[in-house]
Design a protein that fits this description.
With about 240 residues, the chain is α+β, with helices and mostly antiparallel strands. The chain contains five helices and 14 strands.
Length: about 240
């Protein structure tokens, strides 16, 4: 992996925030499907240091007519430079959904041309479940929302009362790939959480923000894979319907 990846996802990096840039007023009012743009921040120990930006590269007609399943590339470039930190590619597949047996949503990630790994939807009945794999295809992490009722339902109260403290929040928990019990509040090693912006932003725009906590002893590559998974989750669960 590149030295740049180690620099921005090294041992001292414990948390990160990825924030979607708001579209222009006219774009929001007219419902235009502009390319998604994100800003990446280090937030460890209260920091708010911008480190990178990413801009979706995709076809306008595909964004309009294929919604949340369109193909795109998204290079992540180090702030203030044109240097690529990593690149994500999502091919066009069937939208996420229960009971599928093929055409699962997936996204691959590279750094400086080298395969870093991927995130892919798996078969599920009620709760969306995904697997992060490294560049060799070996499983690394399981990802799914918090669950209840024996793992059969998404726990909408995991981050608090949806009408109070948990309003506009949605979390995805990250578990080691070999952890057998990941349901009903089982301990996770990391979390990706959609967090609310200002009330006006939440009501009048579809701009999102995500807070990420990384596994304590994860490598720079594995942290980058979890950060990239945030873009995958946004595309599949928060962009398809314009919100949560």
């Amino acid at each position: 992996m590149s030295d740049r990846l180690e620099e921005h996802f090294g041992p001292e990096v414990k948390s990160m925030s990825i924030r979607q840039t708001r579209k222009g007023c006219f774009q929001e009012l007219l419902g235009c499907e502009a390319s998604n743009e994100f800003k990446w921040f280090h937030t460890t120990d209260g920091k708010n240091e911008k480190i990178a930006e990413s801009l979706e590269e995709s076809n306008c007609l595909m964004r309009i007519f294929c919604g949340g399943c369109h193909e795109f590339d998204m290079p992540v470039k180090i702030d203030g430079t044109n240097e690529e930190l990593m690149t994500m590619n999502r091919p066009m597949k069937l939208p996420v959904g229960c009971g599928k047996c093929c055409c699962y949503q997936e996204m691959s990630m590279k750094s400086k041309g080298s395969e870093m790994g991927s995130i892919k939807e798996g078969f599920y009945c009620c709760v969306p479940r995904m697997m992060i794999r490294d560049g060799s295809g070996a499983p690394v992490y399981k990802v799914h929302p918090p669950t209840c009722v024996g793992g059969m339902c998404v726990n909408c109260w995991a981050e608090g009362n949806p009408c109070g403290k948990g309003c506009c929040k949605a979390s995805y928990e990250v578990f080691p790939h070999d952890q057998q019990d990941t349901d009903n509040g089982a301990p996770s090693v990391a979390k990706i959480m959609k967090v609310p912006k200002s009330p006006l932003t939440e009501i009048f725009t579809d701009s999102k923000a995500f807070d990420i906590t990384f596994p304590y002893e994860a490598s720079a590559q594995h942290k980058a894979l979890i950060a990239g998974t945030t873009i995958f989750l946004n595309a599949n669960f928060f962009e398809a319907d314009g919100g949560d």
